[in-house]
């Protein structure tokens, strides 16, 4: 039964994602803020499908820790789930994404309109400087930026591998960094056809304010997130 439910949901997800990307194109003709309506609808429909087809819900802890105005949301990345539903949890936020996503038809227009920060890994050593440059422009407009500090999805319990890009953003942008832990990988595993019922927990932790050294920030960020990850695993 779980495999059947997963099949139905996966089909539903593909249809909903494609429909939002195509029929949401008119929203790109107006103000930039109007363009964020599409990912919010996409996230809402995905949440509805997960709840009613898979029995998969979510809860958010610590919303009171989100500062007003520009900030960086530094989240663990375990699943495709957060790339969608974060559009509902953190509306009108800018993602850091790999530049290759611009090759996806229709979706690419949404990335451009929303001013998604596209990370060009082909730049090599210059990629970090380009990341900071784009992030500065977004912060100047008061945007919240969502970044996955490890750069890719990591399964629950995997050894953490935080990259230096988040440290460069912290030291250069002078805005709070909000750590986020979650356990989505237990229910919507990466590269897995089958999804599981349950409740995904998204835990928003107190922000790290500007003023730490690069090394202090990197150590504190990892300690806070990984400590909470261990708590979620035990729960």
Put the structure in a nutshell.
The chain is an alpha/beta fold and 235 residues long. 45% of the residues lie in helices and 16% in strands.
Describe the structure.
It is globular, with a radius of gyration of 17 Å. It has helices at residues 2-23, 32-35, 37-54, 80-89, 107-114, 127-140, 165-173, 214-234, and strands spanning 56-61, 71-75, 93-98, 117-119, 144-147, 177-182, 198-204. The relative contact order is 0.17. α1 runs antiparallel to α3 (37-54), α3 crosses α4 (80-89) and α7 (165-173) crosses α8. The protein has a single domain (2-234), classed as Glycerol-3-phosphate (1)-acyltransferase (3-Layer(aba) Sandwich). The longest helix has 22 residues, at 2-23. β3, α5 and β4 form a beta-alpha-beta unit. The protein has a seven-stranded mixed beta sheet with strand order 1-7-6-2-5-3-4. The model has no long low-confidence stretch (mean pLDDT 94). The chain is α/β, with parallel strands linked by helices and 235 residues long.
Strand content: 15-25%
| Order of neighbouring strands in the sheet with most strands | 1-7-6-2-5-3-4
Total helical elements: 8
Q: Provide the residue-averaged pLDDT.
A: 94
**Helix and strand succession?**
HHHEEHEHEHEHEEH
Assembly state of the chains shown:
single chain
SSE-based structural type: alpha/beta
Shape verdict: globular
Rounded to the nearest angstrom, the radius of gyration is: 17 Å
Helix content: 40-55%
